[in-house]
UniProtKB/TrEMBL annotation:
This is Cytochrome P450 hydroxylase. InterPro entries: Cyt_P450, Cyt_P450_B, Cyt_P450_CS, Cyt_P450_sf. Residues 135-151 have a biased composition (Basic and acidic residues). Pfam families: p450 (PF00067). It comes from the Bacteria. GO terms for molecular function: heme binding; iron ion binding; monooxygenase activity; oxidoreductase activity, acting on paired donors, with incorporation or reduction of molecular oxygen. Belongs to the cytochrome P450 family. The keyword Glycosyltransferase does not apply. It comes from Planobispora longispora. Residues 135-155 are annotated as: Disordered. Keywords: Heme, Iron, Metal-binding, Monooxygenase, Oxidoreductase. PROSITE patterns: CYTOCHROME_P450 (PS00086).
């Protein structure tokens, strides 16, 4: 056995500022070609699926949220309270109890309940695009602008929008508001908070934007308390009301656990789906033949979502800390060692894995949502949101193509897009 620190490992810097787009994929492929393990800035990087599943499923590892927070001086305050209580950082019986309480709200059947609401939100957002297009068309007729925008009904054959702002950002926030029982008008605030709270997993943000993260956590704690108080007086058919019922039954759920579970759902269910939907449209804009297939048969939406999740996971690196000495593949990882499981390489480690193809027969196992006891609670809801969005948009956006370069975020936490300009043709028939 060799201690991991004694290995001559290739270096992979997941905090490099230029690590986005094809540069990111190319560098990962290069380092993975030298073996299954690399050295990162704060952790070792695990680069194949078998090894990734081992560390994600092992009872000798855990999510290192507390350890990472301490590295950046977060040891007290509301952010530390949230990190310490986060279901990702729980284990054993307490973790099983909390998942059992919140899990029924995120089964495939439970997620399907919200599909009609998802379609309503998509219709609302699409109608907003069409209205923007009409307004832009009127400006064009008045000589104020030369380009048709958004929706394609304003006198031009093409339409365009900045997709993140127009659809990808508001859509999951509206959905999570409905699931929680929060007013739809609160969706923009939910998105803002989710974006900042999620940055507790982003080492670059922890190093440079810690006060803003801490302020967002404090604000969202206050909001959740208000929402719980409202639902206690007027319960509904929503997750918050269900958790309050569990709290009132006594020992099943404490008030603090109830607050933190709602915060976990709010923080984890918005920014993630926004990022994955934006990457989906970016991928399809670059693969027009695949988009045409989906538009012709929206029933392919499930396979399309699976391929998007495989090809461009928005959680590229999932961390684990060794709670005790771990021996694997002839390597000793001492207690306290942190490993980052690379979903991007693990997902592509199949035949023709570097090709984006929604018709290909693929192994259904992905590392995008993790594995083992901490497999993502919201995976079914996210899949449903993405399926509904792709099935809705594909027939309405023929000839989808980029309308400028995307603006990428970093890969350290949630790998999203800050902007995605797109252009498409007006449908030849009503949809």
């Amino acid at each position: 056995m060799t201690i991991v620190s004694e290995l001559d490992l290739p270096v992979f810097d997941y905090s490099a500022p230029d690590l986005t787009g094809e540069v990111y994929h190319r560098r990962l492929a290069e380092v993975a070609g030298r073996g299954w393990l690399a050295q990162g800035p704060l952790s070792y990087v695990v680069l194949d699926r078998e090894s990734g599943e081992f560390f994600l499923r092992s009872r000798a590892t855990a999510f290192p949220g507390r350890q990472i927070a301490e590295l950046f001086g977060v040891t007290a305050g509301r952010l530390w309270e949230q990190i310490d209580a986060n279901i990702l950082n729980q284990s054993g019986e307490r973790h099983r109890r909390l998942r059992a309480l919140v899990g029924p709200a995120f089964t495939p059947r439970a997620a399907d309940r919200w599909r009609p609401a998802m379609r309503e939100f998509l219709t609302l957002l699409w109608d907003g695009l069409r209205q923007d297009g009409k307004a832009q068309g009127e400006k064009a007729r008045n000589g104020e602008t030369r380009n048709e925008k958004a929706g394609g009904e304003a006198g031009g054959e093409t339409a365009s929008c900045e997709f993140v702002e127009a659809v990808a950002r508001p859509y999951p926030a509206l959905t999570v508001a409905a699931v929680l029982g929060a007013p739809a008008a609160d969706a923009p605030r939910l998105h803002e908070w989710s974006n900042w709270v999620q940055r507790q997993f982003d080492i670059r943000s922890l190093a440079t934007e810690l006060p803003r993260i801490e302020r967002a956590v404090a604000e969202v704690y206050d909001y959740v308390e208000e929402l719980l108080a409202e639902r206690r007086v007027a319960p509904g058919d929503d997750l918050v009301s269900a958790l309050l019922a569990a709290e009132e039954e006594g020992e099943r759920l404490s008030h603090a656990e109830c607050v933190n579970l709602v915060l976990n759902v709010l923080a984890g269910g918005v920014d993630t789906t926004q990022a994955q939907l934006a990457h989906a449209l970016r991928l399809f804009a670059g693969h027009p033949g695949q988009w045409e297939l989906l538009a012709a048969d929206p029933g392919l939406a499930g396979r399309a979502v699976q391929e998007v999740l495989r090809f461009e996971p928005i959680t590229p690196f999932t961390a684990r800390v060794c709670l005790e000495q771990v021996e694997y593949r002839g390597v000793v990882f001492p207690a306290g060692s942190i490993v980052a499981v690379c979903a991007e390489r693990g997902n592509r480690e199949i035949e023709a894995g570097e090709a984006f193809d929604i018709t290909a027969e693929r192994d259904a196992r992905l590392l995008t949502f993790g594995a083992g006891a901490h497999y993502c609670l919201g995976a079914n809801l996210a899949r449903a949101e993405l399926e509904e969005a792709l099935a809705f948009l594909a027939p309405r956006m023929p000839d989808l193509t980029p309308d400028g370069p995307p603006r990428f975020g970093g890969v350290e936490g949630i790998y999203g897009l800050e902007a995605l300009p797109l252009r498409w043709s007006s449908p030849t028939a009503p949809v």
